[in-house]
Design brief:
The structure is a single chain. The chain is α+β, with helices and mostly antiparallel strands. It has twelve helices and five strands. It folds into three domains: 12-177, no CATH class; 193-262, Up-down Bundle (Single alpha-helices involved in coiled-coils or other helix-helix interfaces), CATH 1.20.5; 269-387, 2-Layer Sandwich (Heat Shock Protein 90). The chain is 64% helix and 9% strand. Helix 2 (64-89) packs antiparallel against helix 6 and helix 5 runs antiparallel to helix 6 (154-173). The longest helix is centred in the middle third of the chain and has 51 residues, at 179-229.
């Protein structure tokens, strides 16, 4: 009967082929992996000890903690190499962890520093490199001796040792235990939301003070003067009242624009399709709108999608030089996807400090994704992905 290796909890297509007395291709790959464990573990161990020792010794200086974060980042890269080696030689497929956001996406230098120090993926990679040195010595010695002494049973010995390697890779280099990093990201996202809300309140206050409020003050003064001239110069008073009537119209328009900037009534009443069509109509280039949704998402998600498209179309009007644009909105499983494309000059990016970077931060704060594809001369396509949340039923 043919012996077969079975690893509980591992998908069928991720398990190695059954062990056979004859040396198969899988067995030779496992032998190569186990022999390579020694040089790989020596490099990883020496680097890890040097990195921790150097960063620890300099921790009392200004460069100690940044150096530690950079060292942990390189430990992440060592983990990536080990996952690739396991995938190539052991057939073990482990998903890559989500990259940590850089200083621009983390909300500044100190949040980036703190997130890097707490990074559980990097610390598990450090632990992996520390425990692998004795294991690398053991596997190298056993396999090398076994090639000359244990030849008949070597495939079974190799399979047992390789399964331990597989378990170490899955246990220490897998992204499944990334909860601490997600908590850190959500904490950062909450700070972005708070800062964004404060900036929006300041903008509303400024617009009211410099726009509608100033216009209404001038209107009140004009009506006061018209009242004084009503008896002595009716024609002048009528002209002033007519001018005040125009000021009222402008003030009302400014208030409508301000209210639309806070939350447009058409979005509340009729949903994304009508609201985005209204935004597209105000764009300086022709825009084709396609909204394919089975239902309306939660109000917060709907609002984020609306303002994302609104800002992107403003960029199209101001900077793209495009002759046409398109807006597509659809649902894919648990996500709401928004795509805005134009045939303009391209060259847009989401570098920190820019408008697109601000949109990326806002979407990241609600566990969204923001992708920009904008080659020079090739137009721009921006794809935003938001979590789908069902709309709460209207109160009775």
């Amino acid at each position: 009967m043919t012996a077969q290796s079975f690893t509980p909890g591992v998908p069928e297509n991720d398990r190695p082929a059954p062990v056979r007395p004859a040396f198969s291709g899988d067995t030779w790959k496992e032998i190569a992996h186990l022999l390579a464990n020694l040089p790989a573990s020596i490099i990883g161990f020496v680097y890890t000890v040097f990195m921790i020792g150097t960063a620890g010794g300099l921790s009392v200086t200004a460069i100690g903690l940044p150096l530690l974060v950079c060292g942990l980042f390189l430990s992440r890269q060592l983990g990536r190499i080990e996952r690739g080696r396991a995938r190539l030689l052991l057939g073990t497929r482990v998903e890559e962890p989500t990259p940590l956001p850089g200083p621009g996406r983390s909300g500044g230098f100190f949040p980036w520093l703190w997130n890097g120090i707490k990074d559980p993926v990097a610390w598990r990679a450090v632990l992996y490199e520390l425990v692998r040195l004795p294991w690398g010595v053991l596997t190298f010695t056993v396999v090398l001796v076994g090639l000359f002494v244990l030849w008949p049973v070597l495939p079974y010995v190799v399979r047992g040792l390789a399964n331990v390697d597989r378990a170490m890779v899955r246990g220490l280099l897998s992204p499944s235990d990334d909860l601490e990093r997600r908590i850190a990201e959500l904490e950062t996202g909450r700070g972005v939301v708070v800062d964004t809300a404060a900036a929006d309140l300041r903008r509303i206050e400024r617009d009211l003070h410099d726009g509608a409020q100033a216009r209404l003050v001038a209107l009140a003064m004009g009506l006061g003067l018209a009242k004084e001239k009503l008896l002595e110069d009716p024609d002048a008073a009528a002209a002033m009242v007519d001018e005040a009537h125009g000021e009222v119209k402008l003030a009302l328009q400014e208030l409508r624009d301000l209210a639309r900037g806070i939350h447009p009534a058409v979005l509340t009443d009729r949903g994304l399709d009508a609201a985005l069509s209204s935004v597209a109509a105000r764009c300086t280039v022709p825009v084709k709108v396609s909204v394919d949704l089975p239902a309306r998402p939660a109000e917060a998600i709907e609002g984020i999608a609306y303002f994302t498209v609104s800002e992107l179309l403003q960029n199209v009007s101001k900077h793209s030089g495009a002759r046409g644009a398109s807006v597509e909105v659809w649902r894919s499983g648990p996500r709401l996807l928004v795509r805005v494309s134009d045939d303009g000059r391209g060259g847009a990016d989401d570098t920190p400090g820019g408008g697109l970077a601000g949109l990326a931060e806002r979407l990241g704060a609600v566990d969204g994704v923001f992708l920009v594809d904008s080659p020079e001369g090739g137009g721009t396509t921006v794809t935003a992905e938001l979590p789908w949340r069902d709309r709460a039923p209207a109160p009775r």
